[in-house]
Design goal:
four-stranded antiparallel sheet; 28 strands; disordered N terminus
């Protein structure tokens, strides 16, 4: 092989591997918050809880996730129809690539080589190969898919349909929907219990969470939320996150401006914490001592002391924040 061609091949291989090759975690000590209106990511110092800068990205950044090795973060940008790769060391974009029509949320395969993306305009779940940077499969689901969750063994992908009021269960090997599970009205996002036996899904217009058995793929129970003095229509659960000890499910109650602490064993709400306007997405630090609540209408992040069940600070961020990634 001529030297020039060999060098070109090596360069192409190097670019492909940057998305998948594991590296040592940098633990940047920052929280990253995507801003839909500012086309940027706000960085919060986890020690001082102060904003320390922003990273420019593609249009309408929404879902974000660390890539294997935690040196890079991938961002889905709905209005650009792209994914952007952020280098966490330089705090700059490494470049973007086509990611399907109106990508909203995604999850990674256990090996980090495949991204499963909800393509809202297409009403489909996309299979995106991160090595070749190509959409390799598209599985039709209900209209307006959003939440995406890969099973721990990587064999299934769960996706919500906001219009069909269903959770679709997709077999990865066959790229086929194997079960449609009716849940509450306008299902949004997922969390698995610690043992993986239950999948909790928030129902934004049902003021509830549906609990699905991952064994027989049926709804075992529905947890309904109530806030004193508020109508059910004002309680709109979206974000959900399991505590580090696996005992509590945190649920952002949207327009109710609260986060609920739900005991996983009893299914009972034990605490509610007042946060910002439209408590949207949730993230935790590594120890689980702090919960970061992204408030979509007050353009801030509320930091909650989990042990005290108390808000300790609200940090202004970009306009219409969507979610946070905590890298401590």
């Amino acid at each position: 092989m001529p030297i020039r061609i060999a060098l070109r091949c090596a360069a192409v291989l190097s670019v492909a591997l940057t998305l998948t090759m594991p590296a040592a975690s940098k633990d940047t000590g920052l929280a990253y918050v995507s801003s839909e209106k500012d086309h940027a990511i706000t960085m919060i110092d986890l020690k001082t809880l102060a904003v320390v800068g922003t990273i420019r990205t593609c249009k309408r950044p929404r879902h974000m996730q660390l890539l294997p090795g935690a040196e890079k973060m991938m961002v889905a940008c709905s209005d650009s129809n792209k994914a952007d790769i952020i280098d966490l060391a330089t705090r700059k974009s490494m470049g973007s690539f086509a990611f399907g029509e109106d990508p909203e949320a995604f999850d990674l395969s256990p090996d980090g080589k495949m991204a499963y993306i909800s393509l809202e305009d297409d009403g489909a779940l996309g299979f995106f190969d991160l090595t070749t940077k190509k959409l390799v499969k598209s599985v039709p689901v209900g209209k307006e898919p959003e939440g995406v969750k890969v099973s721990p063994d990587g064999k299934r992908v769960y996706v919500t349909s906001e219009v069909a009021n269903m959770v679709h269960v997709i077999d990865v090997a066959t790229a086929q929907v194997v079960k449609n599970i009716p849940v509450g009205k306008r299902p949004r996002r997922f969390a698995l219990t610690a043992d993986g036996s239950e999948l909790w899904v928030t129902n934004e217009l049902g003021a509830s969470v549906s609990i699905i058995s991952t064994g027989d793929l049926t709804v075992k129970q529905t947890v309904v939320f109530e806030i004193k003095g508020m109508r059910a229509d004002d309680i709109t659960p979206v974000g959900i996150s399991l505590s580090r000890d696996g005992k509590t499910m945190f649920v952002g109650l949207g327009r109710a401006n609260h986060v609920a602490f739900v005991d996983v064993a009893s299914r009972k709400t034990t605490q509610t914490v007042l946060v910002g306007k439209r408590a949207w997405a949730l993230a935790q630090n590594r120890s689980g001592s702090q919960l970061f609540v992204v408030n979509g209408l007050s353009d801030d992040v509320t930091v909650v002391d989990v042990a005290a069940a108390k808000a300790i600070r609200s940090v202004p961020v970009g306009r219409v924040p969507y979610m946070a990634v905590v890298d401590d």
